[in-house]
Amino acid sequence: MSAFERDGLLQRGRELYTRNLRPGERVYGEELVREGSDEFRRWDPWRSKLAAYLTNGASRLPFDHPRRVLYLGAAHGTTLSHLSDLLPDSELFAIEKSASTFGTLLGLSRRRANLFPILADAQLPERYAADVGPVDFLYQDLAQRNQAEVFLENASSCLVRDGSGMLMLKVRSVTQRKPTAAVVADTRELLTRQGWSVVDQRALGPFSRDHVALVLRRT
Ligand SMILES: C[S@@+](CC[C@H](N)C(=O)[O-])C[C@H]1O[C@@H](n2cnc3c(N)ncnc32)[C@H](O)[C@@H]1O
Known about the structure:
Blueprint: E1 3-6, E2 9-12, E3 15-19, E4 32-35, E5 38-43, H1 49-55, E6 68-72, H2 78-86, E7 91-96, H3 99-111, E8 115-119, H4 129-132, E9 135-140, H5 147-158, E10 159-170, H6 171-174, H7 180-193, E11 196-203, E12 211-218
Parallel strand pairs: 6-7, 6-9, 7-8, 9-10
Antiparallel strand pairs: 1-2, 2-3, 3-5, 4-5, 10-12, 11-12
S-adenosylmethionine binds next to helix 2 and strand 7.
């Protein structure tokens, strides 16, 4: 089987792995494998939309070594843990509003020095913007009706001018009444009107049906 590793991301056939920042430790029961002298954690596209994005043909990660990242909707930290592997020298601020989920996130951050979880509502960035400070990359994975607006608010509060972002759009949370293509087109139009361009768009099925990934840059 062909194996290819770059910047901590290992590809073996269609399977993805990230170099484990905490060798010997699993985060969500994932497989651990050795490649050369390093240990890698399997990155499951059924559990992580960013892995689904890459598995579905994206040629690269949606960022270039951001020093500071704001992650909205971190849940138990599944995807966040892989970003933590990939960006060991960066600071990753993770917003999560569910107190029950937050406990797991807090536990994860105690074992990984690059994670900074914040219990907050991503619709109210003014409550945490001062703690987070300016970030270079904004990642959002929230099932909410006003997903694009939340992304824009957070970008204007926390993202540097030449920063970029990724919106994991859950189409059916926006509306049940329009077809997917129309919801995506409306979202793109709103983002474009606010000065953003979509540099990549990718459906995440079959891993996360009803989700479309948008990679965004300010124009
Ligand atoms: C689909 S899950 C995220 C999965 C996670 N991104 C991953 O890949 O590992 C969505 C999460 O967003 C959180 N969430 C939803 N609305 C939110 C809001 N307004 N502010 C902060 N978190 C929110 C939910 O509690 C849930 O944990």
